[in-house]
């Protein structure tokens, strides 16, 4: 699995980490959005402020109404991560 880490945009933009088919964006230490081939782009509601809002907009243009509740966002992201980390069974 390929793993990449980069800063998006100029200055202190969101941090992007790619783990195989999953890309997660962070504003400071908080995951704020992700993209996976099964879900497309998924954004958390902005519970933090204007800087995080700018980070979200820099990832992909979207409407705030497209963001999902934080708990749902974290549950869905955890499910995807869990499906990626299940160990393979030995034959």
Structure at a glance:
This protein has 91 residues and is α+β, with helices and mostly antiparallel strands.
Topology summary:
Elements: E1 3-7, E2 15-19, E3 22-27, E4 30-36, E5 40-43, H1 50-59, H2 70-84
Antiparallel strand pairs: 1-2, 2-3, 3-4, 4-5
Structural notes for this entry:
This protein is 27% helix and 30% strand. The chain is of the alpha+beta class and 91 residues long. It has one domain (3-84). The two termini are 21 Å apart.
The termini sit apart by 21 Å
Helix content class: 25-40%
Radius of gyration: 14 Å
Number of helix segments?
A: 2
> How many strand elements?
5
Low-pLDDT ranges: none
Provide the residue-averaged pLDDT.
85
Order of helices and strands: EEEEEHH
Relative strand content: 25-35%
In spatial order, strands of the major sheet run 1-2-3-4-5
Class by alpha and beta content: alpha+beta
Label this structure with key terms:
91 residues, alpha+beta, 5-stranded antiparallel β-sheet, 2 helices, 27% helix, globular
